[in-house]
Design goal:
about 170 residues, mainly beta, five-stranded antiparallel β-sheet, four-stranded antiparallel β-sheet, 1 helix, 11 strands
């Protein structure tokens, strides 16, 4: 689906800030004890080069959003910046075939204020499309958006000692 156009193949609106958020305001609950939390998605885009683009933001409370830096993107990071709107890192220009991008969500959660990463958080991921006031194009297409984590470890504590002495005939130990 296009994140910025209103229908498949439609061009995005100029002077716009479109925003898509998987699972809405509730975010994506990450179970406590989770490690190696990753966002993976496939995407392609067509934006006015250097002026318009797609970018990621993350929120832990649903109101304050932090831009996900390129340092948290493990594969297929941003390829430029938007010259308007603060010069944010973004996917800009044209990528005509779908590519997979992998994001270290734990690193992004730390930047958003969770010192231990995403474990135990409701993570809100924002796919934002920014456009300036002149040229428009086809926008940003997203597919197969998934969040994964390592399995929460099972209990590994040694069992406590159990008394195995036989009972005496009188019923006492």
């Amino acid at each position: 689906a296009s994140c910025t156009g209103t229908t498949a193949g439609a061009q995005y609106t100029i002077n716009d800030f479109a925003f898509a958020q998987p699972n809405g305001l509730g975010g994506i609950p990450v179970p406590a004890g989770s490690t190696t939390v990753r966002l993976n998605f496939w995407h392609r885009w067509a934006f006015e080069n250097g002026w318009d683009g797609g970018m990621l933001a993350i929120s832990l409370d649903g109101s304050t959003y932090t831009m996900v830096p390129a340092s948290a993107i493990l594969a297929n990071a941003y390829n430029g910046t938007t010259l308007n709107g603060g010069g944010y890192p973004a996917w800009t220009n044209t990528q005509s075939t779908f590519v997979s991008t992998i994001v270290n969500l734990d690193a992004a959660c730390v930047l958003a204020g969770a010192p231990s990463g995403c474990s135990g958080q409701n993570v809100r991921i924002g796919f934002a499309g920014y456009t300036d006031t002149s040229i428009n194009a086809n926008g940003w297409y997203l597919d197969d958006v998934t969040v994964t984590r390592d399995a929460v470890p099972a209990c590994t504590a040694a069992p406590s000692a159990v008394r195995t002495s036989p009972r005496s005939p009188t019923g006492s130990w």
